[in-house]
Write a structure and sequence with these properties.
9 helices, mainly alpha
């Protein structure tokens, strides 16, 4: 029982720390993280935070994993029960825009921020960020292709191209909001996504 209590306290501390590291990284990037800084901001001992991760790189990797779980919960899970088709594509895009707009992370989309930070680097953190982004791109393409296979979108549709365009609209709305404080981009993106999906509909 005592051992279980220590484990649960350790898990609670880890969740607390990762909540803070995700918030910092969404604004300042993963390089803005340090064990000492996080310990100070949360009123924890530096040795205690170090024991949770062992290195700055592992803290960064754990932060990416935690952010991926949040992204999946907030963006992907809400559309899992929607049948394949145009509405599922539309709702997925809306789910991303809501995730960004609601500032689950203070800097907007976590992965947009850290993807730019690590795009020209090498190493384990860059690979983890790239893998998470590739997973998201693959998911968007898959949802669009499902809609195509149901006949709701044109049979000859260029799925990667449409995925690229929809993601560009979503990320532009996120960027305008984060950089300029201009939330009108979310409505513009929604209108543009609707227009693009209507143009891609099957007969």
């Amino acid at each position: 029982m005592r051992t279980d209590g220590r484990v649960e306290r350790g898990n609670q501390t880890r969740r607390l720390v990762l909540g803070r590291t995700m918030a910092i990284a969404s604004v300042e990037g993963l390089d803005g993280l340090s064990i000492g800084r996080v310990a100070t901001e949360l009123g924890l001992s530096k040795s205690g935070v170090f024991a949770l991760f062992g290195s700055k790189e592992e803290m960064q990797l754990a932060t990416v994993r935690a952010a991926r779980a949040v992204f999946a919960e907030r963006v992907v899970r809400p559309v899992e029960e929607i049948p394949p088709g145009v509405e599922r594509v539309r709702r997925l895009c809306g789910s991303y825009l809501a995730y960004s707009r609601s500032r689950i992370f203070p800097g907007g989309c976590f992965f947009t921020a850290v993807s730019a930070e690590f795009s020209a680097r090498h190493g384990a953190v860059r690979d983890a960020v790239a893998a998470a982004r590739a997973e998201w791109i693959g998911y968007v393409r898959g949802v669009i292709d499902e809609a195509r296979l149901t006949g709701r979108l044109r049979a000859d549709l260029d799925v990667p191209q449409l995925a690229f365009e929809l993601m560009a609209l979503m990320e532009m709305a996120n960027a305008d909001s984060a950089l300029h404080g201009d939330d009108t981009g979310y409505d513009r993106a929604t209108a543009a996504i609707d227009h693009r999906l209507e143009a891609a509909r099957g007969a």
